[in-house]
Amino acid sequence: MTSEWQYQVRFDANDSATAESLRRKRRDAAVAPLLDALAKHRAAPKCQFDAFADYVAAAEEQGTENYPLYQWTKVTIENPAKKEKYLKSFTVYVDDQEVYAKEIADALEADLQPFATSGLITRISKYDTNPANNPQPPQWPRQQR
Q1: Which sequence spans correspond to the domains of the chain?
Q2: Using alpha carbons only, how large is the chain's radius of gyration in Å?
Q3: Rounded distance, CA 79 to CA 82, Å?
């Protein structure tokens, strides 16, 4: 029996240098083993900051009315503290897809664990597409804190 939900794996890089190597897909000695582990699953990391910036650029090019998270995303990438956070945060894409079967997500999570143990990455998270398990989009306008 297969789950009706799909899954996504994310991880955080331990520092800015590691994150930059991953963003640029540079196969330096520190990240090559991680990239190899992902490649085994036909997977690649996508920096969340870059994904947010791509979303904002697409919205501005095609019209923000069709991008319900435009305002939240734009505010997020313009906030220096959040930019720093999201530059180190990565979503794992498999075959260029941002969500995939649970079995794939479980295998990815297991293969990433040694990199968390070694300290190359600091956090691994697995999310599913069940709306009950995911936050709702922010309501705009709202006061900025």
Answers
A1: 7-133
A2: 16
A3: 5
Question: CA angle 75-141-125, nearest 5°?
Answer: 50
Q: Per-residue pLDDT tens for 58-101?
A: 999 999 999 999 999 999 999 999 999 999 999 999 999 999 99
**Are the beta carbons of 114 and 15 closer than 8 angstroms?**
no
Residue 42 gets the label, from left (phi > 0), alpha (psi -120 to 50) or beta, of: left
